[in-house]
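Good morning N.,

You mentioned wanting to compare the apo and holo forms, so I went ahead and generated the holo version with pantoate. This is what I fed in:
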Amino acid sequence: MEIVDSTIGLAAFKGCGFVPTMGALHEGHFELIRSCVRDGLPPLVSIFVNPTQFAPHEDFNRYPRTLEADARGCQEAGAVAIFAPTVEVMYPRGMARAQEEAKSLHLPTVAVKPRLEDACRPTHFAGVCQVVARLFELCRPQRAYFGEKDYQQLRVITQMVESSRSTDTTCSMPQIVPCPTVRDADGLALSSRNRYLQPHDRERALSLSRALQRAREILRDDTAPGTLGATEVIARAESAMRDELERHQLQIDYAVVRDANSLEPVTDAHAPLQPGMLRALIAARLGAVRLIDNA
Ligand code: PAF
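and this is what came out, ligand included:
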């Protein structure tokens, strides 16, 4: 398996199945690679810790960089190559200019309206849209695979691609393929940041998946015909999620149930709730470790 660090070798991978990552790879990423293989596309994995999606106080400097182990895992999962560009390859006009350009990007609505990750990390999605658009431009994939674990990111990138297609029918944006979250046997969603968790914090971290399970039960049971209205049942599910997280002393950034596409609140009290129409999303902090999950 090749490791490509400049744009020169990239032409050979045009039309690939693409898995963009920041490295520190785990089973969740390897499953994305396997999805490309199942779709019959040669998987190209990018590894680039993108400075423009981190705020100055975030963990850019200490983000785990584990290229050797990542390369072994990619090869085993069936990747044909890794694209591991330098900052200069990604942002040839320099970092200061790249940071300025990120600020002036026009972002999809789902990157600015829901008040979820966009409220907690106000500059994050500008950097994500910038780097993903640049990776697509360089790698020219046919399909790009993203985990549902970062659900708002998945919606943001999907909307970005849809909007480029609608304004430019000749644009060569890939099809976005959502892939289910991969979990450990105990239910914890896999994340590169789980390695920051102390062993004794793991039990508390499981309250995220338990809270989502509780929301799922309430939404399933209380929306049976003749029971509560939509906004009432959503409020009950949100309150049950908060109770579960607070019982384990997690600091909640948000624990909400939203429209699964727009990620905005459901405001129609009597909206008929269909399976798949809602998404429960949580972000909570356990000391210095910030965890997100959704279902
Ligand atoms: O999800 C990630 O790892 C990153 O946000 C992405 C999509 C690779 C962009 O840097």
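Residues 20-22, 50, 53, 128, 131-132, 150, 153 surround pantoate (CB under 6 Å).

Happy to go through it together on a call whenever suits you.

Best,
F.
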